[in-house]
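[Discussion] Sanity-checking designs against the backbone

I'm trying to build intuition for which residues belong where. Below is a structure token string of 231 positions. I'd appreciate it if someone posts a full sequence so I can compare it with mine line by line.
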């Protein structure tokens, strides 16, 4: 019947979306960079913009290679459990089959070509749910930590950041949001005397103008409803 055909198409599309979701969660680079930097900082090292640069041939690292490196970093930091959710969610052959379209949906199964294997509905759901749980847990932990900053805080900087022994950083906070960036901690008089400004973060339209106008400003007003998204 027409209704049965519609249900079959719906089931097929949902299956494709599910597989796409799994692949893109495991391929997303920012979570790996975030975990790597947190592990480095926990050991007193500094943040790096690219923890996983391309290899000598210019080829981006695969998720499996990143997870292996993260595992070593976690062991060095004596926090091996950090990488466990990723290891449980990662299936190299399943990922490769999805991104190279080397699979077919047959009933409740996902059948791959290289290697020849049938993933039952239960096996697929376990992998998908593990990937979603890892992604949601990391995103929520990040959100909770950002929200824990209700007022600007002055923090030390890594010794390699500046040769000035008095250099400090101020955590920029947006009301009802939390931490959104970092800036220098110099006063207006210190800046006038030659100290160097710096600032980095993710800001809403208009916020950079506020920060430019007042070099000591570090508490931004709350985001108004319907205000454009973060730029």
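Best answer:
Here's mine. Compare freely.
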């Amino acid at each position: 019947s027409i209704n049965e055909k519609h249900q079959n198409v719906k089931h097929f599309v949902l299956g494709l979306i599910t597989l796409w979701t799994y692949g893109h969660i495991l391929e997303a680079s920012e979570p790996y960079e975030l975990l790597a930097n947190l592990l480095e900082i926990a050991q007193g090292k500094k943040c790096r913009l690219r923890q996983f640069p391309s290899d000598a041939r210019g080829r981006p690292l695969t998720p499996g290679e990143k997870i292996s490196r993260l595992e070593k970093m976690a062991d060095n930091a004596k926090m091996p459990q950090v990488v466990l959710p990723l290891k449980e969610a990662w299936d190299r052959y399943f990922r490769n089959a999805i991104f190279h379209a080397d699979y077919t949906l047959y009933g409740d199964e996902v059948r791959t070509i290289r290697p020849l294997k049938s993933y039952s509905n239960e096996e697929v759901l376990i992998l998908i749910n593990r990937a979603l749980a890892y992604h949601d847990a990391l995103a929520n932990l990040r959100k909770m930590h950002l929200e824990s900053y209700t007022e600007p805080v002055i923090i030390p900087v890594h010794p390699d950041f500046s040769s000035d022994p008095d250099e400090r950083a101020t955590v920029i906070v947006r009301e009802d949001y939390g931490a959104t960036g970092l800036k220098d901690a110099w006063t207006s008089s210190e800046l006038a005397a030659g100290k160097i400004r710096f600032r980095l973060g993710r800001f809403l339209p208009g916020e950079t103008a506020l920060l430019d106008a007042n070099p000591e400003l570090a508490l931004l007003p709350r985001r108004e409803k319907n205000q454009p998204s973060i730029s």
